[in-house]
Inverse folding.
């Protein structure tokens, strides 16, 4: 299994500002993903973080709003840009060890935008 | 999207087996069935996954029907700490997992 650490665990931010969330995995992984969980809802995939290339975004999510970096096989960041109260959610990092194997999740970053 | 159907909620008595059903009739032949759970305010926790044979680990058993259109997650002796939202999904060949609404399992004393 993989242990995934996210920072910060929570934050309260002013609208119009940006927040960068870090995700660190304790071992090299093939794939990393970012999810959003809005209050009372299920998880929605934002994007796949690709090592050494641009992230692959799901429908409804764009790079300008959610820029993602993945400089190596154990680390990724997600930035929530120009935040509004609608961005208040839990943001979760996930890492997959290989095709058709299980993925593991961090504990999430609880973001509140005021 | 990989769509599954689960009951929105279920109850189970502590110490009894919890049987959580899932319908995944559009699953393709090479896609695995995955189960995760999310305890309030925590990240999702992996439980088990399988292709077509029944699987068992220290947490649960997974029973997949022969036509692979449905499955059942079995928690053999539910405890209060098993109260959570349980998600059934299929996929994995492209590493992506699509979460549905899940089943809120409440284990009662």
């Amino acid at each position: 299994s993989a242990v995934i650490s996210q920072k910060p665990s929570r934050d309260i931010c002013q609208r119009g500002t940006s927040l960068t969330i870090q995700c660190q995995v304790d071992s090299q992984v093939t794939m990393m993903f970012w999810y959003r969980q809005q209050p009372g809802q299920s998880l929605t995939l934002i994007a796949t973080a690709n090592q050494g290339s641009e992230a692959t975004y799901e429908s409804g999510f764009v790079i300008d709003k959610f820029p993602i970096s993945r400089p190596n096989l154990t680390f990724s960041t997600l930035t929530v840009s120009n935040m509004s109260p609608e961005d208040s959610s839990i943001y979760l990092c996930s890492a997959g060890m290989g095709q058709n194997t299980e993925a593991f999740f961090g504990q999430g970053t609880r973001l509140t935008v005021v | 999207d990989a769509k599954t159907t689960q009951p929105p909620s279920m109850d189970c008595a502590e110490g009894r087996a919890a049987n959580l059903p899932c319908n995944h009739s559009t699953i393709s032949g090479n896609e695995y069935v995955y189960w995760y759970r999310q305890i309030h305010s925590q990240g999702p926790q992996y439980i088990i996954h399988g292709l077509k044979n029944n699987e068992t680990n220290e947490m649960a058993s997974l029973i997949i029907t022969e036509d692979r259109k449905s499955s059942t997650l079995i928690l053999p002796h539910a405890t209060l700490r098993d109260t959570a939202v349980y998600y059934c999904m299929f996929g994995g060949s492209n590493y992506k997992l699509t979460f549905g609404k899940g089943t809120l399992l409440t284990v009662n004393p």
In short: The radius of gyration of chain B is 13 Å. The beta strands of chain B are 9-13, 18-23, 32-38, 45-50, 55-56, 61-64, 70-75, 84-91, 103-108.
